[in-house]
Structure formats: C-alpha cells, structure tokens
Amino acid sequence: MADAAGRLTKLAEEVLGAPLPVRIRAWDRSESGPPGAPTLVIRHRRALRRLLFKPGELGLARAWVAGDLDIEGDLYEALDQLAGLIWERDDAPKPQRAAVLRALARPEIRAAARELLSLAGAPVPPTPPAEEVRRRRGPLHTLRRDKEAISHHYDVGNDFYALVLGPSMVYSCAYWESPEATLEDAQRDKLDLICRKLGLREGRRLLDVGCGWGSMVLHAAREYGVRAVGITLSEEQATFARKRIAEAGLADRIEIRVQDYREIKDEPFDAISSIGMAEHVGRTQYAEYADALYSLLKPGGRLLNHQIARRPLADEEAYHVDEFIDRYVFPDGELAPIGRTVGQLEDAGFEVRDVEAIREHYALTLRSWVTNLERHWDEAARLTSAGRARVWRLYMAASALSFERNRIGVNQVLAVRTPEGGASGVSLRERTWTG
Question: Is 224 in contact with 289 (CB distance < 8 Å)?
Fold first, then answer.
C-alpha cells in the first residue's frame, strides 16, 4: 500500500495521456506531483470506491461532500486545472473524451485499473452523503415536485444564508461599479437598476416572482413607493421576509405569499420582476411561465427577467444537467441559451426591449460569497452540516470560474406587454432607465 499517491498519479497520467496538473496526497501520507501546485487530498481510500462504483462527476461529488476528498491550496486554480480532465462539460473537446476511452481499452490501462481496485479496498459501494437528493419519481415540474426542489435548495437555514450572502440577503448576481466595491453596495445597485428598468414609481403594483428573503420588494416599496407582492415556494424564506418587512414598517405595502407562479389569480400588475428564478422553471414549462407572466401584466406593463444562460449546443437534444448540480444544488434545474429565452418571451407576446449581459458581475458576486463562507466556515458547518457547507463552497467556486471562462452567462431581459397601439412607454434613450 506504500506510495499510494505515486501509483494514483501514474494511473491518472496513463489515462489522460498528459502530466497531472495538481499534486496528490493520499491517506498513507505519500505525495506525488508538481511541487507548489494545489494538492488533491485523498483522505480515505473510500473516495476511490466512490469513483469505482459511480465513475465521473457524481462519484467525485460524493467523495468531496463526504470529506473523503479535499483540495489544499488555491481552490480556484485547482478547479481550473482539473476542469476538462475529470469533470465533464458540454463544451469539453470531443477528441479528448475519445482519447480517454481509447486509453481505457489498452491492456496496460486495464492493468492499472485492476491496481486501482486493489487500492480502493473492500468492494462495497459507500452510502451516498445525506445531503444528496435521492432518486425522484414522477413527471418534472409539477407543483409538488417544484416545491420539494426549492425546499432542498433554500430551506437549509436562514442563518446559514445570512453568513454567505451578507446583510443584503440577495441570492442573485450583484451589479458592480468596480471590483473594489462592497457586495452590499453592488446588491443595492442591482436592485435599484431593476427598479429603474421597470419604471417603478409611487402607486404602481409590483409582483416579484421568486422573492427570496424579500430584498427586492423591500427596496422597491421603500425607495419607489410601490405596493408589492412577493411569492416563494420556501417556507423559511417567507417567514424571514415577513419579519424583515414588519421591522421596516412596510407590512401595509408588501405581501409575501408561499405560492407558485401558476397559482396567481390576481388582477394584473404594473411590473413583474423575476430574478434568478426562471432557472428552476425547466424547458418543458418555460412557455407556460412566459404566458403566465404576460397574462399577469397590464397592457404597457414591464417584465424584468434576470436569468443564468448556458452556451448553445450544436445538438440541443444532447443537453443535460450535470449530476453534481442536480443531486446536490438545484434539483430539476435547467439552463437555456439566451436566444431561446428571448424567443419564448416573444412567443408569449412580449416585446423585448433590452438585453444586458452581466456575466463578469456574477463571477465577482460568487467569489464574494465564497469568501464569506470560508471566513465563517465553522459556524456555517454548525448551522447546516459540514457536507452542505462543502457543497456550497464547491458549487460557488466552480460557478465563478464558469462565468469567468464564458461557459455560462447571466442576462437581464427587459420586456413589455406593449399595447395594440404600439406605445411601449419606454423612453427614447433606454439606458437612462427612466419611465
């Protein structure tokens, strides 16, 4: 069993056909790999069993969440080096995948795999971490299944989210004047930008779909004098938001409901904000989502749809949500290219007036959240679980790199339910955002 790290490095390099860009430290304290590089720490050989029984991303995710696998050194550098080697990506070069498959067919690699089996120990599949969503049944995006998915992501403790998000309690991309700005200022600027794009003013009625902890409706009511309804499927978010609203003395202007967008039967609104919510809708339901929001707006009313987008694929049918995100972060969540989102909003009847890409802003936001989590690590793990904290650290750091490398983006789409006469109500110089 001596020098497990050296044997694992040799196996990895034979499969990849290239030097391993990180060091490995194994459970037997052996180390191998380039000096000074981030270190992949295999704390227990159970991590190898997780990979053998579930090769690929899910096995790695389980090892990470369980604490069998860790990274020492710069987390971002390590993830950047490993991306495309051990994590599948939709944009990963196909020749590289083919080379790995060819390598696995070679006799010497099969021999190395047998060695891996000997390193892994008892051939018993480890139990998945408690933080993993178990296999779901039934059709996607029913009212019940969506509520369960939202609960998995958001009902992990308001105090935990307060550590990560900071005082703003906004869980979506901030809007940065510069990288030196504070997270709180950038989140305030984002909320204010949305209010201006929506043309909010005294007396208007706002619907915030996926209102989170109430930050958008609070800002809109306090700064622009609107009456607002916020909806969420998370009981914990609703409780927290109602408390904030009462403390701000705005309970007569803001209503928070635990409600699905498909259940709203109110008279039309003057404006709708949907901030970081549409990613949960799913492609099979997106047309219904767009139709529902269109029907809830008065003629001349505006929608601000703030949504993460992925890069388009040559074969869109090949799109799949990666297993780590689906099992640990956003169950049943899906991303769409921005072109499809704009097209579906137009199909619903909207006139799309502006699309603003703010991809780099999300990278800055995520890095700030990771910093907050790492600064309060012990408390965060106590408030939820060590595994859940590890999920969020990996998810947010990897997502920051994905935004920086243009693998995913985020866009604010301003759309209007333009009346038949054609008067949109949007000013001639749209970027001034008055209206």
Answer: no
Q: How far is CA 259 from the centre of its chain?
A: 22
Q: Closest Cα partner for 96 from 177, 16, 172?
A: 16
Q: For residue 303, what are the CA distances in angstroms to 247, 261, 414?
A: 28, 14, 6
Q: Is residue 389 within 8 Å of residue 329, measured between CB atoms?
A: no
Structure tokens at 195: 């209010």
Distance of alpha carbon 293 from alpha carbon 264, whole angstroms: 10
Alpha helices in 22-105 (DSSP H): 46-53, 57-66, 75-82, 94-105
Amino acid at 89: R
The H or E element containing residue 141 is none
> In angstroms, rounded to a whole number, what is the distance separating the alpha carbons of residues 239 and 383?
18
* Report field, pTM of the whole predicted structure over 0.85: yes
Q: Residue 396 carries which side chain, given as an amino acid letter?
A: M
First-to-last CA distance in the chain? Answer: 71
SS3 content of the chain, % helix, strand, coil (to 5): 45, 15, 35
The predicted-structure confidence for 216-242, as pLDDT tens digits, reads as follows: 999 999 999 999 999 999 999 999 999
DSSP state of 87: B
Give backbone dihedrals phi and psi of 209, rounded to 5 degrees, phi first. -90, 120
> Packing angle between helix 386-404 and helix 158-165, nearest 10 degrees?
40
CB 234 within 8 A of CB 171: no
Residue 316 DSSP class? G
Radius of gyration of the chain (CA): 24
Structure tokens at 393: 């650290």
Both tokens of 390, joined, read 């590890």
Q: Kindly tell me the burial class for residue 284, based on how many C-beta atoms sit within 10 Å of its own C-beta (0-12, 13-18, 19 or more).
A: exposed
Contact 77, 34 (CB under 8 A): no
Cα(292)–Cα(252) distance, integer angstroms: 26
Quote the tokens at residue 202: 């005294």
For residues 126 and 61, what is the distance between their CA atoms, to the nearest angstrom? 13
Q: Which two tokens stand for residue 259?
A: 């409600």
pLDDT tens digits along 80-133: 988 866 544 444 444 444 554 555 556 666 666 676 777 877 777 899 999 998
